[in-house]
Specification:
The chain has about 260 residues and is of the alpha+beta class. It has two domains: about 5-65, Winged helix-like DNA-binding domain superfamily/Winged helix DNA-binding domain (Arc Repressor Mutant, subunit A); about 70-245, GAF domain (Beta-Lactamase). The chain contains eight helices and eight strands; from the N terminus they run H-H-H-E-E-H-E-E-E-H-H-H-E-E-E-H. It has helices at about 5-15, 25-35, 35-50, 65-95, 140-145, 150-155, 170-185, 225-245, and strands at about 55, 60-65, 100-105, 110-115, 130-135, 190, 200-205, 210-220. It has a six-stranded antiparallel beta sheet, sandwiched between helices. Strands 1-2 form a two-stranded antiparallel sheet. The longest helix has about 30 residues, at about 65-95. It is elongated and about 70 Å long. The relative contact order is 0.10. Keywords: DNA-binding, Transcription, Transcription regulation.
Length: about 260
């Protein structure tokens, strides 16, 4: 597999810093990398533009940027979240025989970070690491439901409401109306909006501060998604997310 040279060099620059080497001058980096200063300067400026490298204004030396801290914290929090949520996802799947998902928000998309296959219907579109549009998915709707309309409009700037099925929401106005309903009910539904023949329901997870940090969903065949069945699934989902949120320090009201 070919390696992209510029990316490889940029990552190696980041690896030069450790607990004992907090700052380096461009000359020092050039010597360690065995590269011309002009090449190193271009790489540093690119990393600096994306906040992976910062520069000490007094000494002119370079150091690791806050973007690495932000990304590192995201990875750690996701690992903690998965370990806390896993047994609850398994309980939910075993109770319903359905596939359960754990999803986080990344920009304008949801990202599956865990999945437990049910013994019933197989859901093909979901896999760990896959992204899903927020407007066609129950998890996407649940993830953004804690945002007020001003925050939501900011998030949706430049968003494309691509219709994946005939049922998909096709405009920002309709999406905001949908989110208002999600806020009122405490759960979100994907009514064959992402995959024909599959209905999903989802409920958000909150951390100790009350911030929505993830969502859990279940998928069921549309043919069996009666109002009574969905109400039962929502009840179980709320029990599941209640337990996860409590372990993360948030206290839900009793269902």
């Amino acid at each position: 597999m070919p390696i992209i040279q510029s990316l490889d060099r940029a990552l190696k620059i980041l690896d030069l810093f450790d607990e004992r080497t907090r700052e380096l001058s461009i000359t020092e980096i050039s010597k360690k990398m065995n590269l011309h200063k002009s090449t190193v300067h271009s790489l540093l400026k690119t990393l600096q533009a994306h906040r992976y490298i910062s520069q000490n204004e007094e000494t002119g030396k370079y150091m690791l940027g806050l973007k690495l801290f932000e990304r590192g914290n995201l990875v750690v929090s996701n690992l903690d979240l998965r370990s806390v949520a896993r047994k609850h996802l398994e309980w939910l799947s075993e109770t319903t025989s359905l596939t359960t998902h754990l999803v986080i928000l990344d920009g304008q998309e949801g990202v599956y970070i865990d999945k437990v296959e049910g013994s019933g219907v197989t859901v093909f579109y979901s896999r760990i690491g896959r992204r899903v549009p927020i407007h066609t998915s129950a998890v996407g709707k649940a993830l953004v439901s804690s945002k007020d309309n001003q925050e939501l409009k900011k998030l949706l700037k430049g968003y494309h409401f691509t219709k994946r099925t005939e049922n998909s929401i096709g405009s920002e106005g309709d999406f905001i109306k949908e989110i208002n309903q999600v806020r009122a009910s405490g759960f979100a539904v994907d009514n064959e909006e992402n995959e024909v023949g599959i209905v999903c329901v989802s409920v958000p997870i909150k951390d100790y501060s009350g911030k929505t940090i993830a969502a859990v969903s279940m998928s069921t065949p549309a043919a069996s998604a009666t109002d009574e069945t969905l109400a039962y699934f929502v009840k179980l989902l709320k029990e599941c997310t209640n337990r996860i949120s409590r372990e993360l320090g948030f206290e839900y009201e009793k269902i």
